[in-house]
Target: Phosphatidylinositol 4-kinase type 2
Amino acid sequence: ALNSLYVLCGISIWCVCSGTHGGDFNHFPDDPEFADIIQRAEHAIENGVFPERISQGSSGSYFVKDPKGKIIGVFKPKSEEPYGHLNPKWTKYFHKLCCPCCFGRGCLLPNQGYLSEAAASLVDSKLGLGVVPKTKVVYLASETFHYSAIDRAKSRGKKYALEKVPKVGRRFHRVGLPPKVGSFQLFVEGYREADYWLRRFEAEPLPENIRKQLQSQFERLVVLDYVIRNTDRGNDNWLIKYEKSGEEGGEQKVSLDSCIKIAAIDNGLAFPFKHPDEWRAYPFHWAWLPQAKVAFSQETRDLVLSRLSDMNFVQDLCEDLYEMFKTDKGFDKTMFERQMSVMRGQVLNLTQALKDGKSPIQLVQMPRVVVERSRSGGQGRVVTLGNAFTQTFHCKRPFFSSW
Model:
């Protein structure tokens, strides 16, 4: 790469010619539909239709639009995560600065939320759940993202060079701001927060066929959250879409055309490397719902049990997650293996609960299990699974055991 020193307004700025463009990274040959959506997002930004920062939440996340201004996705940059160095919302920075002893979630790796979002979508796809809007890791650059003063100065310097010295300026691979890596989740339309619909359903009970649909969708959400050990599932970060068929005589007419769907969004605080500490358990808030007291249906068992009970399937899933997680600059293979040990334990518990006909609330009351690659030592009751893995039962009961 050629480094050229330009003096702009009396300020010396090093301009590095080896910049990268988002197009160098955003290749999805196995998913042309997703690739087309990302291309539309890039074209929109190039034509001045910039992503819009979302006011809610504690991080920098953005509604991404197509060239016509329609929202097509939600982008969450790694650098703008709750404790990222470029988080534009000062509350988390103040928290980190003033309350370091209570900083973050001690069971999660910092600044890997974007990977957790994409990994949740991968698990959803592998298990055939269909509740997580498609999410992948992408690179985007936009003036509306939060950049450091240095990055913005470099961008201005490159533009100046291109204008004043075109032959040299053309050597820059990228003239604008550097792309940010993050998760891109497809935007879902017609959904509202689960809390809204759950209150409606209490006042207006659902017809039996729709109630069964809701129960089936709810069980898929439970399966997802339990496998990835989501530490942030409240009734405000999963969505429900209820499409009614029509009206007759002033009263709702429900037919086979009516349907109900769940969308599990905000999956960035999952895949812990250890089970949450007892004093801060991060419970699954859906466990308080009446749907959690109903035993898993035969439909759910037929969907996932054969896969979850197959060690080859679980190993393939771990390998797919490895290929995704290792792309992060801060990737640590030892910590990743600990994350997978927790996930394997969750899979083991879920498999047994499905076989025994348990309900979601009974599932979360089961003792915590870690399944790690065989080695000597360890705490709790240890059982060897063949020659490859060791199963450890933790003595501490989970949060819900007191119910």
Observations:
- Confidence is low (pLDDT under 50) at residues 1-22, 247-252.
